Amino acid sequence: MIPVITIDGPSGAGKGTIAQMLAIELNWNILDSGALYRTLAYFMKENSIGIENFEENHNMLKTRFKVSFDPGTPGEPVRVLFENQDITSIVRTERMAQLTSDLAAEPTIREFIKPCQREFMTPPGLIADGRDMGTVIFPDAKHKIFLTASAEERAKRRQTQLKRQGLEVNMRSLLLELEERDRKDTDREHSPLVPADDSITIDTTNLDPEGVVREIKNNL
Ligand code: C5P
């Protein structure tokens, strides 16, 4: 059985940073499922595909939708590679996140992405970051972590992240956008954002990334 550690939680809780640190330290594969959804949203937008004509484009999407990740360097976002292009900065914007969140509520989209996500489970192990990794995609994972943090702290972290990408954003609108996206992700009918029954919840508000990794490792 290939070992899987799932890391779920709301946006800005630290999932990406922690998943990256663990993947580098253990030398395991990484699945950034949010980036997978973002890439699909981007690809659909570029090709004028909506939910209404998704089925008729299903085969083309299946053939062309191949995403890979490079854990990159600590402090930098996990890199998203699609059709020989690094699309990290294109998909990691708050505008793309909102578009993605609407699309991710659609069962057709979730069913399409399900097998793509499971393909990442290859030796020696997988760190899977998302919203439903421990509940729906890898329910048999041995280690399930749910990260949380206060909304203000999460907005602050997202602002720092976007700044590093050269994007200036207003803190207040960022906070409102994050809260709106969390509400959508939590209230949706299909695969809502909830901790798995057998997950360990860690509040990261007052922890630095090293402290979170230490706590996870203490629980492995
Ligand atoms: O994690 P990230 O912010 O990149 O995710 C973008 C959006 O993708 C989330 O707000 C959520 O709507 C969706 N998503 C999801 N299920 C996942 C990962 C992300 O619905 N496993």
Structure description:
38% of the residues are buried. The protein has 220 residues and is of the alpha/beta class. Strands 2-6-1-7-8 form a five-stranded parallel β-sheet. It has a three-stranded antiparallel β-sheet with strand order 3-4-5. The chain has a single domain, classed as Rossmann fold (3-Layer(aba) Sandwich). Strand 3 and strand 4 (79-82) form a beta hairpin. It is built from ten helices and eight strands. Helix 2 (33-46) crosses helix 5 and helix 8 packs across helix 9 (171-187). The protein is globular, with a radius of gyration of 16 Å. The chain has helices at residues 15-26, 33-46, 58-64, 88-91, 94-104, 107-118, 133-137, 151-164, 171-187, 209-219; strands at 4-8, 29-32, 67-70, 79-82, 85-86, 126-130, 143-148, 200-203. Cytidine-5'-monophosphate binds next to helix 2, helix 5 and helix 9.
